[in-house]
């Protein structure tokens, strides 16, 4: 894949190993619960990169940090999706691992048990201004905000991107971790981000408003473009304090909702980079999200 005329997409974020356990019915405390279990590559940042590459168009690059035990596997899996990985191998910490408990019912809702491992040990020493050479857009995984070293990396990356005129997008990543970080601290850390891509819960948490449309509108007074992902309710696109588009979801039969938001983000950013208007890019995102929930794991199918 070659760099498109408008430049590449650089994603900076988490690369983890997902252990996906699909169970039907409630978990049985103190005894066995039958489940189908698979180990697959994951991580919000890595998933976004893979879905962006899957859509096609510009070159997609990824900066992440992994442990020695799984570095080669993750590099192969990313390359197979068409991503150019730059993985920093951590000599001390293992690759992050997430256990995804997926309810086998109709909604396929999931619960995460997260050991971030090496993924949140990215630090400013892993950054180089040269990473932005040939890059038209920078995307940051919100998980980077949940540790001190990777927060420092976010600050450096944002400063470099602003100096070069490279637009920056960010996905807040986790309502649970956002509560721990604090809303005011989050907003201060992401000052200068051009595109915010929160989930419905994250948008409401960040604004204190119960309605997703009101929350997206309020956030768009702080960020030039806000795209609020609403799962089966589609997506909201807001600018300058107003929601100007409501994009419907694409019908799907969910098997595993892990990575659906990442799929949306990746396809949205790839479309935006190709010149699509935000509303049309959100439609691409909804299509990718629908495709993602019909698969186990957070990655697109590997072509070829």
Automatic annotation (TrEMBL):
Q: Where is the Carbohydrate kinase PfkB domain?
A: 9-300
Q: Give the highest taxon in the source lineage.
A: Bacteria
UniProt keyword annotation of Ribonucleoprotein present: no
Give the keywords, sorted: Kinase, Transferase
Q: Which GO terms describe its molecular function?
A: kinase activity
Q: Which InterPro entries match?
A: Carboh/pur_kinase_PfkB_CS (IPR002173), PfkB_dom (IPR011611), Ribokinase-like (IPR029056)
Under what name is this protein listed? Sugar kinase
